Structure formats: C-alpha cells, structure tokens
Fold this protein.
Amino acid sequence: MSNTQIVVLACAAVLVFWMVGAYNRLVGLRNAIASAWALVDEVLKKRGDAVTALVLALREALAGEQNALEALLAADRQVRAAAAAMSVRPVDPALAAAVLAGEAAMASAASRVLSLLEQHEARHEAAVAPHAEVLRESVARLAFARQLFNDAASTYNEAVRLFPTRLLADLYRFKPAGRL
C-alpha cells in the first residue's frame, strides 16, 4: 500500500468516526429533550388531576360560575391533548406551540377560578383546599420543568445548527426542536 492510500484510508476512518460521534451526540441531546419533557408532562398530569378534582368539588359552591369552571376544564383538555401529542414527538416545534397555546388558555382560566375561589368560603373546605394548593404550586413547578426542557432544546438546537454537524443533521433529518 502506498502512502497516498494510507492517508486516504486514515481520512476516511476519521470521517466515519466523526460521523458516528456526531450522530450519537445528536441522539443523546434529543433523548435529553425527551427526558425533560417527561418532567413537564408529570407536572401537567398532576395539575390536570387537581383541576378535575377541584372542579368537581366546586360545582355546587360556585354554581353561578359554571362558565368559569367549564373554561378551566376545556383548557385542561386542550393541554392534555397537546401534551399527549408532544409525548410522542417532544422535538416537534408545532406540538410545542400547541402546548403553549393550551397553557395560555389554562393560565387565564385557572387565574379566574382561583380568584373566584379566594372570594368564596369554599376555599377552606377539606375537599377544595388541597386541590387549589396543587394548582397554585404547579405554576412554580411547571416553570422549573419548562426551563429544563428549554435548556435541553437550546443545547440540541445549537448542536444542530453548528457546522459541520449541520451537514450531518440535514443528512439524518435532525430538525430544530420547539421550545416551551
């Protein structure tokens, strides 16, 4: 074998090792996004369960505010549907946008119900207080989980955009991730 052939083989080997390493890095970063989404999803499920229980407990106490309670349940259904879709493809930006839209509706509806609850005696009832507290606490927990998700998505997106990994990302169809 000539020196030229050895140099060509060495360059080919370096290129193959780089491609395998870059691919594995992108897959690892994509898996980190999925892990971060699992934390967000867990908080969303706990909040959804609390919303359902809270609405059931408040049906009679806030009989005149059924529209607010129905809006809260509708927002919860919207978030749950978007979260279920996001669980399948946590990197998809369109699904992340759907979760954000659901979260906006949920924030509005939850603040309305919580403000109504503050004005009512039912807030001290044993059937209501723990669920209302979980709903309030979920705001901070969700913010933390979303920050972890966004950090993982930013790291992945940066890796996908960097040259020369961008060439490999295009080849293997790694697309930028959505953010919450």
